[in-house]
Amino acid sequence: MKEFYQLDVNKVYDYVQQELNFFDENPDIECNEIGDGNLNLVFRVKDRKSGKSVIVKQSLPYVRCVGEDWPLNIDRSKIESKLLEMEYKLTDGSVPEVYKFDEVMYTTIMEDLSDYVIMRTGLLSYNQYPKFVDQITDFIVKTLLLTSDIAMDHKDKKAYVKEFINPQLCEITEDLVYSEPFFDAKRNNIADYMKTFMEENVWNDKSLLMEVTKLKFDFMNNAQALLHGDLHTGSIFINQQNIKVIDPEFAFYGPIAYDTGALIANLVMNYLSTNVRCKDEKLKKKHMRYLLDTIRDVMDVFRDKCMKIWPDIVRDNMACRTPDFAKWYIDDIFVNTAGVTGCEMIRRTVGLAHVQDIDGIEDERDRENIRKLNVLLAKEYIMNRHKMLTGKDFIDCLVGFTSS
Ligand code: SR1
Ligand code: MG
């Protein structure tokens, strides 16, 4: 009988052949472990002769970036592969195609995306992706609005809520995004100079803590749509033609703003980072303009697409009878998107899991300044979130803050 074992570069080719008989005879195989995420092992297995390749992702029973001291249920890979299969159909292939999910090995064998790059890496090299806004807003509308009570039969939706219950991974977000960055927690990854700064500006700011607590409870209680659950720029593979959204292991029924906010926050952090990293003034200006346009348009095109599709998909008998409800519903997503944007920015600065956009700033003083600016700007997004009702509001906050 098959039993779980941890894969490594020497075992993964035999494993793929056993499961899928994927490669031709006498291949010239190359295997690499390419995972740079916080949780899993990810291998690329490639036959140099035929060019055929696959990705094998295996969940480990502990948090990879911390070690065996932090055990984690490997069942999360089941949720991930189920969601990928569902979203593959919902989005016409904007996620990798799953070839096989193995319930014993907790592996997903899936389409290789070697002609794509991780969006965070692309943006850090100042690349632009003109089709991104249209593609990601399609993805968001299809995966989120279509899995909500707006479009689904309420009992079917509740069955999904049950199927995608994901308590352990939600707990990670509750702790790492909505709690620990807001006090001097042991797991925080915080530079010494940030401690006093956080005490003065965040940890003792009672009104801020109140707003963050409200946002945390929205995350825990608002089973609005089937989220990706970790939709930052490191979860998007991209090229000039397409996007492929990866890694939905944090999926569960939660507030739509959690996905949109994670995305906006990571674009904002890239903007702040570009301002100090890019030494070519012309390129800097161009890239920062591109980021502002992208942030604004993601929000505005998202709203437009929701409003456009709404009459065709709305099923709830009260929402159908109440034309103003659509605007109220989307306004609420905008407001909470701004709130999540702020929480994500703070946690990526002082919480356990950081981002390259900030940690990769080479000059120490620039890095310190951007960390502080990032936290202060994040506060603006949280405290002024009720005013953030258009894409312009999101970028005015950013521009106003960074130019003052
Ligand atoms: C322990 S997991 C840390 C972070 O990595 C994942 O990508 C999520 O963003 C999580 O919060
Ligand atoms: Mg991830």
From TrEMBL:
It is an enzyme of class 2 (transferase). Keywords: ATP-binding, Kinase, Nucleotide-binding, Transferase. Residues 223-269 form the Aminoglycoside phosphotransferase domain. Its EC number is 2.7.1.100. GO terms for biological process: methionine biosynthetic process. Pfam families: APH (PF01636). InterPro entries: Aminoglycoside_PTrfase (IPR002575), Kinase-like_dom_sf (IPR011009), Methylthioribose_kinase (IPR009212). It comes from the Bacteria. GO terms for molecular function: ATP binding; S-methyl-5-thioribose kinase activity. PANTHER family: METHYLTHIORIBOSE KINASE. Homodimer. Belongs to the methylthioribose kinase family. This is S-methyl-5-thioribose kinase. It comes from Vallitalea longa. The lineage of its organism: Bacteria, Bacillati, Bacillota, Clostridia, Lachnospirales. The gene is mtnK.
